[in-house]
Specification:
This protein is an alpha+beta fold. Helices cover 55% and strands 17% of the residues. The chain has a two-stranded antiparallel sheet with strand order 1-2. A two-stranded antiparallel sheet has the order 3-4.
């Protein structure tokens, strides 16, 4: 069993994804080659390394998911699993984007022009079009709402990060035998 915390596991997940992408690219480049210049990284070796990285990645991600599903944090007087807290963080991020992206218009503004017949001048004339807007959310209230959401996000994120740095994961780092997965010699 490993002595990794969730945070360390997540960093290793990122590293393994990078390794997986790297060996996948080398394998794709080595699958066919000019017989006069063999590839520096043989295809079979890259496929084996890819299989090993993938196996480690899958088992590590599963271990992190298990820890997230069983570890609880308390925020706002309420206990929840890390898995729920992570989803709440995602939704808070979406809410922040939603309120930041609202177009708030209030008052009367000129919005283009239209032509109409002027009887006194006996011709078409251009007149400005004015539109009066009313808003359901004042700008000052939007700013306050976004700040409240950010504060909630930061507080919950701190609780998640603290738990991530303290919570161990149950993971056995395994290596895949060379014959597994690809069938390459």
């Amino acid at each position: 069993m490993s002595n990794l915390t969730i945070s360390q596991g997540l960093r290793l997940v990122k590293k393994l994804k990078g390794q997986l992408a790297e060996v996948t690219g080398r394998a794709q480049g080595a699958v066919s080659f000019d017989v006069k210049s063999k590839p520096v990284f043989p295809f079979a070796d890259q496929v084996r390394q890819r299989d090993e990285a993938r196996e480690r990645l899958v088992t590590l991600e599963a271990a992190v998911a298990r820890a997230n599903a069983t570890t609880e944090v308390t925020f706002g007087g309420r206990a929840m699993t890390l898995a729920e807290a992570i989803r709440r963080l995602q939704e808070l991020k979406g809410d922040i984007g939603f309120f930041q992206g609202l177009t708030i218009r209030e008052g009367t503004v000129r919005q283009g022009s239209e032509y109409e017949w002027d009887t006194a001048l006996q011709r078409q004339v251009s007149r400005p079009v004015e539109v009066t807007y009313e808003t359901s959310l004042k700008e000052v209230d939007r700013v306050a709402k976004v700040q409240a959401l950010r504060d909630e996000f930061d507080g919950l994120n701190d609780a998640v990060e603290t738990a991530n740095h303290r919570t161990p994961i149950a993971w056995q780092d395994t290596k895949v035998p060379a014959q597994t997965g690809s069938g390459c010699a």
